[in-house]
From TrEMBL, chain A:
Membrane topology: Multi-pass membrane protein
Identification of the protein by name: ABC transporter permease
Source organism of the structure: Pseudooceanicola antarcticus
TM helices/strands, residue ranges: 6-25, 37-55, 61-86, 93-116, 136-158, 189-213, 219-235, 240-262, 268-284
Pfam name, any one: BPD_transp_2
Subcellular location: Cell membrane
Main location: membrane
Phosphoprotein among keywords: no
From TrEMBL, chain B:
Name of this protein: ABC transporter ATP-binding protein
Organism: Pseudooceanicola antarcticus
Matching Gene3D superfamilies: P-loop containing nucleotide triphosphate hydrolases
A molecular-function term among this protein's GO annotations: ATP hydrolysis activity
PROSITE patterns named among the record's database cross-references: ABC_TRANSPORTER_1, ABC_TRANSPORTER_2
CDD domains: ABC_Carb_Monos_I, ABC_Carb_Monos_II
Domain ABC transporter: 5-236, 253-497
Top-rank taxon: Bacteria
PANTHER family: CARBOHYDRATE TRANSPORT ATP-BINDING PROTEIN MG119-RELATED (PTHR43790), GUANOSINE IMPORT ATP-BINDING PROTEIN NUPO (PTHR43790:SF4)
Keywords of the record: ATP-binding, Nucleotide-binding
């Protein structure tokens, strides 16, 4: 297999990773019945906060931790507003997206041109030296493996664990769950924090590994793509993976297309991953009968415990 | 022997209304005890007090002789008191076993739980399959699941709030068999209902409430329906007057081989339905929801369109007309769902009157005549004795029964040629239900054609001139009123086979 094919394959998974992380987080949030539109903002905050730690010599591991924490803090703000003060989830989410863009730009002032050392591939020893399989599968950084591992873990947790079952029914009928003695607001708040942490991590991946520099609004709409991935993937983790890989794949292909100088405007090529992902996901989410089981029925509706 | 549950002098007042006034009752172990009363008699408040949702102002509750003070629902469950609400509290998108698991403590072990569910279900004769998704279950199956959920916790006192309101006669009989078995094992049951024949067929004792007070303590197996009704309503139940009538020469509404598409997930395809509805008659469509009722109603109201010639109003093909055009052509429709389809919850009764009355003088030159609309809303409120705070009251502020009276009154004020009504008396108390039924008969005797969808066979037998059964999308032959019995209709509802429908012994 040629070098090119290998680099397209690995590039695809790397480009898919931030989407995968953010979308898997949002999936859990939405399954609990909360719609957080602010992924883009949380990713940016994570990207800026993580970069700040790394550029000042704090080390990459702490930088990722701070990125996740910053995303979770931003999400906590959203959680308090929507769960406690019953602010409209759509409005609060959009505000968070804009707020995140502004906060991250402020944080990043002055660090724009400073490069850092990108996250290195995980040292898997002899595995990385295997012919073909080595460069194909065993030379990624840890975040790629983390993203991939989270797919089955999220699926298993949602569908097989008691906590996941409770989360799903809170998203379906919060009133009934409350009547059975489950603390709807606490469950939703924890889900929101988890979604924020993963969005922050996804943002951190962009600034700490993917590009290893800070650029204002560097997420470039990936938060919105992650959001639509969740819906079009009908709230199923493995479909989210498929969508993220598709997006990553077209991103890499169009890059190669631009390098090869295809006679297509580069703007059109840059738009290709967004268009392709949405088209394919629209087509696979056409089976409405099956979808009804996956949609969190109380999505976006506030819950107020009576008495 | 100490009673399982004993109430002495329990009272509870809310601002402006005394919900419970000095109520005492006693339930023995293994006894099925009915709390009989109309809507607003104080049944629900009393149950909330027993279950610990509300605290009484005065009086005491003893459970196995021990005084319960300011207990919570959680403590009630720990003591073995379980409650099944009228509106199911199941989760639709998860399986039966997962629904049960959510009510039990401890680790999630579905394979073991499935086994336990099968055992418990077999022991009580419940038809519950742990692997099915609740969304696919019928109302009867959901009811059984609700009860099974309680049984898995080994209750000693089970409270059931109007458990049969959405069940077919066969499912009711199955439920009774299960309840008798539960009681025979020593569990006490409190059975809240306003249905006299059910209470007489099932319960060992009955406490009758009216206006928050106990008006009778009887053995319902000894008492007659008449005696119970008098205790419950305070007077004799009016028997509807059905003057003879001659059907119009030509049909007012005709269906010609109607085959509408299924609506929603659990929808039914209508199978070639033909029907002629004449002026001067009330025709009933019996059957349990989910057998094509919503599809047929939608095809009639115009919410679903069908080939033009499949639905005729008089001679006019209206299959392709939308609801507003059909209303202009003389059709009125009262949907089963009152808030959201029958009325807009957040709007006043006046505005809700305009909603269907636009073609009858409430709108002129595109402008709403609010004074006129207000007058008409007030007239409906008065004529149908709707309990509401004037025509400016929001639809959502009315109780279900009162809103139903208002919606029906609003449609009758239009003097329609054809009236289609779905579940006219759901959740409406006995007195108001009798009133509504009489109005439907009166409308038909004034020359209109009336089509009534209902799950309550007694109601259909009382008011209809003939009854069809809609089962699995197919419409049965007409059963004339004289030949209509619960047995015969029940058999048609379950596809011909005679179920074990027991008539309550007289």
């Amino acid at each position: 297999m040629s070098e090119l094919a290998i680099s397209i394959f690995t590039g695809t998974l790397i480009a898919a990773t931030p989407l995968l992380l953010a979308a898997l987080g949002e999936l859990v949030v939405e399954k609990s019945g909360v719609l957080n539109l602010g992924i883009e903002g949380m990713m940016l905050i994570g990207a800026a906060a993580g970069f700040l730690v790394a550029v000042q010599g704090g080390g990459l591991l702490p930088a990722f931790a701070v990125a996740a924490l910053a995303g979770a803090v931003a999400a906590a703000l959203f959680g308090v507003l929507t769960l406690l003060f019953l602010t409209n989830q759509y409005a609060a989410g959009l505000a968070l997206a804009i707020f995140g863009s502004g906060v991250s730009a402020t944080l990043g002032v002055g660090f724009g041109s400073q490069p850092i050392e990108a996250l290195a591939p995980l040292n898997l020893g002899p595995l990385a030296d295997l012919p073909l399989l080595g460069p194909l599968l065993f030379r990624f950084d840890i975040m790629v493996y983390l993203g991939l591992a989270l797919v089955p873990v999220t699926w298993w947790w949602l569908n097989r664990s008691r906590a996941g079952l409770v989360l799903r029914v809170v998203g379906e009928a919060p009133g009934n769950a409350h009547a059975l003695g489950y603390n709807v607001l606490r469950i939703r708040f924890l889900a929101i924090l988890w979604g924020g942490a993963l969005a922050g991590l996804a943002g951190g991946y962009l600034s700490l590994a993917y590009t290893a520099i800070w650029v204002e609004n560097m997420t470039a709409g990936r938060g919105w793509i992650a959001l639509s991935l969740v819906v079009f993937a009908t709230w199923r983790p493995f479909r989210v993976l498929a969508g993220a890989v598709l997006f990553g794949g077209v991103t890499i292909l169009q890059l190669h297309g631009q390098i090869l100088g295809l006679p297509v405007p580069s703007e059109a090529l840059s738009a290709a991953p967004y268009v392709a992902t949405i088209l394919v996901l629209v087509v696979i989410s056409q089976n409405r009968a099956r979808m009804a089981l996956d949609v969190p029925l109380s999505l976006g509706k506030p819950f107020r415990a009576r008495d | 022997m100490t009673a399982r549950l004993q109430l002495a002098g329990v009272s509870k007042a809310y601002p402006g209304v005394v919900a419970n006034d000095d109520i005492s009752l006693s339930v023995a172990g293994g006894e099925i005890h009915a709390i009989l009363g109309e809507n607003g008699a104080g049944k629900s408040t009393l149950m909330k007090i027993i279950y610990g949702v509300t605290t009484p102002d005065a009086g005491e509750i003893r459970y196995d002789g021990k005084l319960l003070e300011a207990h919570s629902p959680g403590q009630s469950r720990a003591l073995g008191i379980e409650m099944v609400y009228q509106h199911f509290s199941l989760f639709e998108t998860v399986s039966v076993a997962e629904n049960v698991a959510l009510c039990l403590e401890g680790r999630l072990d579905l394979p073991a739980l499935r086994l336990r569910i099968r055992e418990t279900a077999a022991r009580y004769g419940l038809a519950v399959d742990p692997d099915r998704i609740v969304m696919d279950l019928s109302m009867g199956e959901r009811q059984q699941l609700e009860i099974l959920r309680c049984l898995m916790r080994d209750p000693r006192l089970l409270i059931l709030d109007e458990p049969t309101s959405v069940l077919s006669p066969q499912a009711v009989e199955q439920l009774f068999t299960v309840l008798r078995r539960i009681a025979a094992e020593g569990c006490s049951i409190i059975y809240i209902s306003h249905k006299l024949d059910e209470v007489r067929a099932l319960c060992h004792a009955a406490t009758v409430l009216r206006g928050g007070r106990v008006t009778g303590e009887v053995d319902p197996r000894q008492a007659t329906s008449h005696e119970l009704a008098v205790m419950m309503v305070g007077s004799d139940l009016p028997i509807p007057e059905r003057p003879a009538s001659t059907p119009s020469a030509t049909p007012r509404l005709s269906l010609r081989g109607l085959s509408g598409r299924p609506l929603g997930l659990a929808g039914r395809r209508l199978q070639d339905i033909s029907l002629d509805l004449f002026g001067g008659e009330v025709v009933g469509i019996a059957g349990i929801s989910g057998n094509g009722q919503s599809e047929l109603a939608a095809c009639l109201s115009g919410e679903a369109l069908c080939p033009a010639g499949q639905v005729l109003l008089g001679e006019t093909p209206v299959g392709q007309m939308r609801p507003d055009a059909r209303r202009r052509a003389g059709l009125a429709y009262v949907p089963e769902e009152r808030l959201g389809r029958g009325a807009v919850p957040g709007q006043s009764l006046t505005a809700n009157t305009v909603l269907t009355g636009y073609a009858s003088g409430l709108v002129r030159h595109g402008m709403v005549r609010f004074a006129e609309a207000r007058r008409r809303a007030s007239a409906v409120i008065e004529r149908f004795s709707v309990k509401a705070d004037g025509p400016g009251a929001l639809a959502s502020s009315l109780s279900g029964g009162n809103l139903q009276k208002f919606i029906l009154g609003r449609e009758l004020a239009l003097a329609p040629d054809v009236l289609v009504v779905a579940q006219p008396t759901w959740g409406v108390d006995v007195g108001a239900a009798a009133f509504i039924r009489q109005r439907l008969i009166d409308l038909s005797r004034d020359g209109a054609a009336v089509l009534v969808f209902s799950e309550e066979l007694d109601e259909l037998i009382e008011i209809c001139d003939r009854i069809h059964v809609l089962s699995e999308g197919q419409l049965s032959e007409a059963v004339p009123r004289e030949e209509a019995t619960k047995d015969r209709l029940g058999a048609l509802m379950t596809g011909g086979e005679l179920g074990p429908v027991a008539e309550p012994a007289e």
